[in-house]
Amino acid sequence: MKLRLLLLALVAACSTDTVLEVQDPDVINPEQITTPGGAEALRRGALSRFVNATSGGESFFLLGGLLADEFRSGDTFNERNEADRRNVQTSNANVRAAFRFAYRARISAQQTIEALRAFELEPWKIAEMYVVMAYIENMLAEDACSGIPLSDAKGTAVVYGAPQATAQVFEVALAHADSALREVTGVGADVERVRHAAAVLRARILLNLDRPADAAAAAASVPTDFAWNNEHSTTTFANGVWSLNNSAGRWILSNGEGPNTIDFATAGDPRVPACRGIGGVTTGAEALPDCATGVALRAFDASARTIPFFVQLVWPTRESPVAVISGLEARLIEAEGALRANDVATFLAIHNALRARVSGLAPLSDPGAQAARVTLHFRERAFWLFGRGYRLGDMRRLVRQYDRPVSAVFPTGSWFKGGDFGGDVSLPIPQAEENNPEFPAGQACLSREA
């Protein structure tokens, strides 16, 4: 009886207006960002969205690699099959999600800059957000077709962006990388981290703008051991490649698709270690070790089991970090600058200094002709930078800057699940962008050229 009376008293004391109100610590309300702590929370949120837009989700890293030659579709989903077959529709839900993640990261960084300035917080934090913005813009320009809209936010209002040509988006990214370098003043580990990241990113953008000498100069000050790592965990974002290849078997490490692409899985290159899953098909896979228990051992889609199932071991766990910007990339940019300047000795010296850091890699020799050197350089880039969102942009540069036919760069011929490869060299602007009043309905792209 006493317990019943106590319960009745507690119920009577509850307000029906407040009993269902719950404090959610993961949600930052507008009034909560008007403090230095709130600005810092925005910064951390922007970095989290950056991870989701790059190595922590089914992002341009994966979709670009699927459209290129890093991965093959081991899945039944049309969205992944479209990308693998180079025939991506504007209604593709996975591409739409990748764009959404990228735009969210970019706008979050933009809003964070405003909040950090309001409280005069450390300049390197502002520079870090400019790095995020520049990285996302460059990634969009590398992987998406020409006609990318860059909308902005002013307070709670959306400022819609009109379609921009690829070169224009690279210029926007370059301006933000320059802003990062202007903002990052002082000394300290974080200052150096952001300064090096901005320098490498600036060099990457300059290379995309076909300014190899300027790119090499921009990268020169960055130490080879530098790395901007995205971290992954069981409580935040899992490593995206591990999730879809190692864990779920919905993506297959590629062993080449047609005569012109890279044999990542069976090249025996220590920069992209691999293992072989079970199944009836073993051709080309005999030299690889069997995958360990706990790894996906066959493709999710039964129709994908007509080819060997390969698993990458660059990132063998859910928690494996990914270096999205690195000093290694800086050296590769310098090597390309030397290649374009016909300085073969420096070109080879840079590559061989990098190869000497990895057991099992023999020195390169000069293949003799400039076209062969270009092929060698981009093959080296493919192994060094595997799975980090570079490959599709590099293949497009081979077409755009080195005058190679699309058919000599991209997967061609018969697609392994039936039919032939399409002609896409980039990801389309998703149909959802038609909600943008500045984006013409039905346009999709200004151009689908590389």
Structure description:
The protein is mainly alpha-helical. Helices cover 44% and strands 7% of the residues. It has helices at 2-13, 36-53, 60-67, 78-84, 93-118, 123-143, 166-183, 189-208, 212-219, 240-247, 327-340, 344-355, 370-384, 391-400; strands at 71-73, 148-149, 152-154, 157-159, 163-164, 227-230, 251-253, 274-276, 310-312, 322-326. The protein has a two-stranded antiparallel ribbon. A hairpin with a 2-residue loop joins strand 3 and strand 4. Residues 5-13 have low confidence and may be disordered.
Strand order of the largest sheet: 1-7
CATH architecture of the domain at 35-233 and 321-341: Alpha Horseshoe
Let me know the average pLDDT.
92
Strand residue percentage: 5-15%
Q: Could you name the CATH topology of the domain at 35-233 and 321-341?
A: Serine Threonine Protein Phosphatase 5, Tetratricopeptide repeat
What's the overall geometry? Answer: globular
Classification by helices and strands: mainly alpha
Low-confidence stretches: 5-13
Helix content: 40-55%
Q: How is the main sheet built?
A: 2 strands, antiparallel
Distance between the first and last residues' Cα: 79 Å
Main CATH class of the domain at 35-233 and 321-341: Mainly Alpha
Tally of contiguous helical segments: 14
**Strand segment count:** 10
Radius of gyration: 24 Å
